[in-house]
Amino acid sequence: MPRSGKEARARLEQAALELYLEHGFDAVTTAEIAARAGVTERTYFRHFPDKREVLFEGERRLTGWVTEALAAVPDEVAPWPAMRRAIDLIVPSLEESGRAGNRLAAIVATTPALRERAAAKEANLVALVAGLLVERGAPADEADLVALTEWGVLAHAIRTWRAAPGTPLQRHVDRAFALLGGLAGA
């Protein structure tokens, strides 16, 4: 049995990833996830409201990374370069969680209900970024456009990174921003 709530959560996440990859999302129950993690189903539901949310714990971590990274950028930096710096600051954390992210992406790609949840997660993160930029003094329309665009660039970079195992994520981030700069200048 896990000794802490944090350990139980981590084991539940790992068990869910493994089982969903082995059997598919629809074929796995919360009881099976709990058993694989070495906890009771009741413990499972103390941590996650349903079998989808166990896969999206990374959203909480990503929200924290983005919030901390943007807070580390001086307030006088304009929204676009501030978010660009924040993205560079979260790249190491994204790389560190890369294997789990790749496994999650594979599960989400084959499950419509999870694709819907992933889209909602992305919308929540974009709204968070836009809100943080407004708190820093950016006009709402500018904050929204910066958040949508920079998040799209980061998502593109992550997809190209996943397709090129062994390459650093930062290289893909830099290339994606350069590509956007070229397109915007056209």
Topology pattern, helix = H, strand = E:
HHHHHHHHH
Runs with pLDDT <50, length 5+? none
Number of strands: 0
CATH topology of the largest domain: Tetracycline Repressor, domain 2
Determine the mean pLDDT: 92
Helix content: over 70%
Query: At the first level of CATH, what is the class of the largest domain?
Result: Mainly Alpha
Beta-strand content bin: under 5%
Task: Give structural notes.
- The mean pLDDT is 92.
- The protein has 186 residues and is mainly α.
- The protein is 77% helix and 0% strand.
- The longest helix is centred in the middle third of the chain and has 24 residues, at 112-135.
- It has nine helices and no strands.
- It has two domains: 5-51, Homeodomain-like (Arc Repressor Mutant, subunit A), CATH 1.10.10; 56-185, Tetracycline Repressor, domain 2 (Orthogonal Bundle), CATH 1.10.357.
- Helix 4 (57-71) crosses helix 5 (79-96).
- It has helices at 5-23, 30-37, 41-47, 57-71, 79-96, 98-109, 112-135, 140-162, 169-185.
- The termini are far apart.
